[in-house]
Amino acid sequence: MNNKNCHIKKVIEDAELFNTQNFWKEVPMLLIDNYLWMDNGYTPKVEVKISYSNNFLFAYFKVYEKEITATYTEINDPVHKDSCVELFINLFPNETDKYFNFEVNTIGTMHVGFGAIGNRTKLEKDDIKEIQISSTIEKPLTGIHGNEYWEIFYKIPISIFDKYYGLKFNANKAKGNFYKCGDETRNEHYGVWNNIVSEKPNFHLPNYFGELVFS
User: Fold this and answer.
1) In terms of DSSP bridges, do strands 210-214 and 174-181 run parallel, antiparallel, or are they unpaired?
2) What pTM was estimated for this model as a whole?
3) Are the C-beta atoms of 148 and 66 separated by less than 8 Å?
4) Using the 8-state DSSP alphabet, how is residue 26 labeled?
5) CATH of segment(s) 5-214
6) How far is CA 191 from CA 42, 83, 116, 209, in A?
7) CA dist., res. 96 & res. 157, Å (int)
8) Beta bridge pairs of residue 144
């Protein structure tokens, strides 16, 4: 198994600026560039950056996709059917098999789950509302959105991780993966950062998570 490594930079800038390019300029970039399961030639480039502070985990996705599907507007809707980007992360892989899946469509609608395989649940909506999300596309749309790419920025309070794990985050080594999908878009597609081996589309395979190292 060839696991990739991602070094997560600690930032000290004002967290309110998380949706500006200046906030992200010194943060290393990784790519979602491995598309699986479909043979339709649709492989949009996706740039990802992730960072953290004492109080937040930050994520940024830049998706080179001119045509989108964005139909779901309610928290915990099945946004993976839309044009969607996803972060799966286990902050305590030495202590537990439980992981989060943060899934968000182009207009910032988020679905979040937590738990181990076979015993997962959706996060409470009030907890998800504490995650601040900023998108360059704000309204539901199916079709051309008028730009070469779309962007999603979000910041997750560390307190959410502490609450669900019952463990205190201390910038330890984590595991996770990053995805791009669109199960019910015009061009169905499934992109991954760290490669997955599976006969059918399935992102819930923590054995294929890469290493996430907090700097």
Assistant:
1) antiparallel
2) 0.97
3) yes
4) T
5) 2.60.40.1190
6) 10, 12, 22, 14
7) 20
8) 67
